[in-house]
Design brief:
single chain; about 130 residues; mainly beta; four-stranded antiparallel β-sheet; 11 strands; globular
Amino acid sequence: VQLQASGGGSVQAGGSLRLSCTTAGTTGGAFSRYAMGWFRRAPGKDLEFVSAIDNSGESIYNAAVKGRFAISRDNAKNTAYLQMNSLKREDTAVYFCAAQIKTKGSIYYETSYDYWGQGTLVTVSS
C-alpha cells in the first residue's frame, strides 16, 4: 500500500487548504476498511496527532484543530481529505497521512498505523 499526500502550500493566516491522501495498491474495496489519520511535525517539534477517521466514518481531532479542520474520506476514490480552515501560524508543519490496515489500537496513536505517506508542507504566514 502506498500513500501520497498532497495539497500543501503557503497561505496567509485565516486562509484554507485541503490536503488529500490517495492510496494505491489496494484492491476489492479494501480502502473502505482502513482507518486513516493525519499527523504533523512542526519545525523542531515531535510528531503530533491531528485527526483520524475510522472505517465507519467516526472522526476524532486534536483539540488544537477541532472546529477548524475537518477530516473526510471518499472510499470510491481511495482518498482521505483534511480540510483546514482558519489556519494559524502554529499550524505550520509537514503533514503526514497514515493508514491503519488492521485494527490494533487507538487511531490517536502513531504506532497504530501501518503505512505512511511522504508528507506535504503547510506554511502559514501572518
